[in-house]
Amino acid sequence: MAACGAPGSPPRQRGPNSVPEAEEEEDDPALGCDGDLEVNPYDGLPFSSRYYELLRQRRELPVWTTKYSFMEHLEGGGGIVLVSGPPGTGKSTQVPQWCAEYALSLQFAHGLVACTQPHSLAALSLSLRVADEMDLNLGHEVGYCVPHEDCCTTETILRYCSDEMLLREMTSDPLLRQYGVVVLDEAQERAVPTDVLLGLLKDVLRQRPELKVVVVTSPAVEEQLRAFCGDPPVVRVPGPGPPPQVLHRDPPARGRVAAACQAVLDIHRRQEPGHVLLFLASEQEITECCGAIQTEAMALNPGLGPLLVLPLHPGVGRAAQKVYEALEEGGRERRVVVTHWLGDSSFSLGSVRFVIDTGLELRSVYNPRIRAESQVLRPISRSQAESRMQRAAGSPQGTCLRLYSEAFFEQRLPPSPAPHVSETSLSRLVLLLKRLDIADMGQCDFLDRPAPESLMQALEDLDYLAALDDDGNLSEVGIIMSEFPLDPQLAKALIASCEFDCVEEMVSLAAMLTVPPCFVPPSTRLEEAVTTRRRALLHPAGDHFTLINIFNAFQQHNADEGWCRKHGVSGEALRLAGIVRAELLEVMQRIELPVSPPAFGTDANVLNIQRALISGYFLKVARDIDGSGNYVMLTHKHVAHLPPSCCYLLRQPPRRLPPWVLYHEFTISQDNCLRVVSEIQPQMLVELAPQYYLSNLPPSESRDLLMELREKVVATEEVPEVPEPLEEAASREDDENQDVCVLQ
Fold it and tell me: Cα angle at 276 between 270 and 279, to 5 degrees?
């Protein structure tokens, strides 16, 4: 378990004679009383002065005015309470704390409190803030649980978690019996796990009427959620203050990033007070813009004060907490937070007075027909634009600058964002629901039902992977696959490695494929030196083997950060890979799968890893149709290319490109590149891929070659053995009998 603790806050010590006390109703600040508790009812320790300082801030939040109404509804007879309000009003921090007060009043008789978030980074950040507000230690009474990081103990009574983690928890505890209250936060984001949890929790409530479910959302989807949840009571949170001034500008001719950067500098030059929140389309644009602002700021008059530029996206990890760090009292420092869709509703920043919105987002949209994602740059929705605008609401009045015209807002922006369940591969979700004994997907209640085509493609893929039996239920292989927190194809490859005696290598590879890409773009000055050092890590068998090489080298150098910088790799990603690897080995040991000893580097091991990969990734194979690097997918006719970072392009001297490759990912984008590519032999594909998969491939020259190979393999298997002459057979039989006699 990762180390936990709020940065800069010393751990509170439990007194030997302290006794927890429940909060008395008359002392509840929400009811207008002045009496403050001197002892924290959760750990029995005296409250610190910081608790009272934060309590004053909490009372000023718009959501605080609804506490009495919320507690009345929560204590009432209904199972679901809907909380609706704009972002930045304190819902994500205060509502879970009130639920903890309710659970405490019952002495946690019905269980603990869980609060789900669509984004792991938000769960981590909120748990840090709430532990501080409750005057408790993170990792004790307040904790968080996100993929690959569990910061909870047996003392935890309020758990922030990603929605995916709670959904996985239901595979072992379908009724969530350890929880008395479940808060589904940011339901308007329509993440797949949140949508599924909404439907499943409705069923759980029928079997556990004592459970309380709180759904927190924005007003844009309030009516839809209210109808779906059976008309529950609604607590409406007022906005943070007067709406901001909204300004529209025509789309910039010189590019969004340059225009956004210039808008930030113009605000700073005018010396108008307040921090800036800037919305761009993608992580790449965020990185580019942060660099541009920092470069331009160096040429500004120092008298304007410093600009603190902070990127905010999933890749920044714990550094996201910098957006909450207190600035110097009376200082002139201006904070500029540069983000994308992650900041639509998560990460409330009360001191923001300027919002700059480019109105576009880059999303990956899955196409089930071609089994590939497409990078789509598209307009945000009107509800997202309104949420962003609300970030600058309050007194004094803020400003929202939209770098798009009013006509673009009215005509091009859809009313609400598309639910993720309509844009995501459903194979992993279907595997999980099958594990929950939901054999027929029609039994699962969805806010918006997935497209039948997407469901059929997910079921077909699971069938190809031997995860389903003849009745459509999980097979033994499927049950084992569902134990791993991996995509089904990677889980199947890991299981196959047990058969091919390459578990040690495959578990390292699975970890490296699960974490963010480990390569860090070097600066122009160091690019040549870093590339030369990277070449020493390349493996001739392909990118998959190079990843194993890099992980092994990182471990051999004792996770040295200097080694990572020299080779242009991310130490953070590699350390996370070590954590994921340990988790996967723990799962394998728990379900008693055999773990073979390491043998990386031998020719036999290379063949075995290729066999294990093909067992899971036969759906992701491409063939070079002209010998010049134009690779056509087997499952569709899109043409792709090898990425610049591919080992086959980096190695010196250059060699021929592999005619057949297996790849990890393919996204239709500007460069149309495959990601993580290794050479395979088509004979292996014929031997290991299901026969009915090969037969169902669309007509192509590649399919014809494979079927021809298949016929040769079948013909070889069907060749009858030549009968031996009778005399030779009799003679050999005598010899065998003599051997038997000798042995006896």
Answer: 125
Cβ contacts of 84 within 8 Å, gap of 6 or more: 216, 217, 218, 219, 222, 234, 235, 236, 237
Judge contact between 131 and 152, C-beta under 8 A. no
Tokens 């499952």 — which residue?
635
Give the DSSP H or E segment for 204.
Answer: helix 192-207
Task: Calculate the alpha carbon distances from 153 to 156, 161, 619 in Å.
Answer: 5, 13, 41
User: What does the DSSP assignment read for 561-617?
Assistant: HHHHHHHTB-HHHHHHHHHHHHHHHHHHHHTT---PPP-TTSHHHHHHHHHHHHHHH
Q: How far apart (Å, rounded) are the C-alpha atoms in residues 711 and 709? A: 5
pTM equals: 0.86
The pLDDT value recorded for residue 676 is 95
Using an 8 Å Cβ cutoff, are 455 and 428 in contact? no
Q: Quick check: 637 and 700 in contact, CB under 8 A? A: yes
Q: The tokens 């501080």 sit on which residue?
A: 132
pLDDT of 710 reads 87
Contact of 178 with 121, CB cutoff 8 Å: no
Q: Which residues contact 572 (CB under 8 A, 6 or more apart)?
A: 317
Q: Which of 160, 210, 214 is nearest to 183 (CA)?
A: 214
The phi, psi pair for 704, rounded to 5°, reads -60, -40
Where on the phi/psi map is residue 535: left (φ > 0), alpha (ψ -120 to 50), or beta? alpha
Strand residues in 262-316 grouped as ranges (E): 275-279, 307-312
- Backbone phi and psi for residue 352, each to the nearest 5 degrees, phi listed first: -75, 130
Closest C-alpha to 78, from 235, 266, 227, 231: 231
Tokens coding 243: 């709406």
Strand partners, 662: 621, 678
Distance, in Å, from the CA atom of 505 to the CA atom of 416, rounded to the nearest integer, reads 45
143: closest CA among 101, 169, 112, 110? Answer: 112
Q: Which helix (H) or strand (E) holds 91?
A: helix 91-105
Residue environment code for 605-634, b if the CB has 16+ CB neighbours within 10 A, otherwise e: bbebbbbbbbbbbbbbbbbbeeeebebbbb
Mutual angle of helices 427-435 and 476-483, in 10-degree steps: 110
The stretches in the chain having pLDDT less than 70 are 1-37, 328-331, 350, 439-443, 718-744
Q: How far apart are CA 458 and CA 619, in angstroms?
A: 12
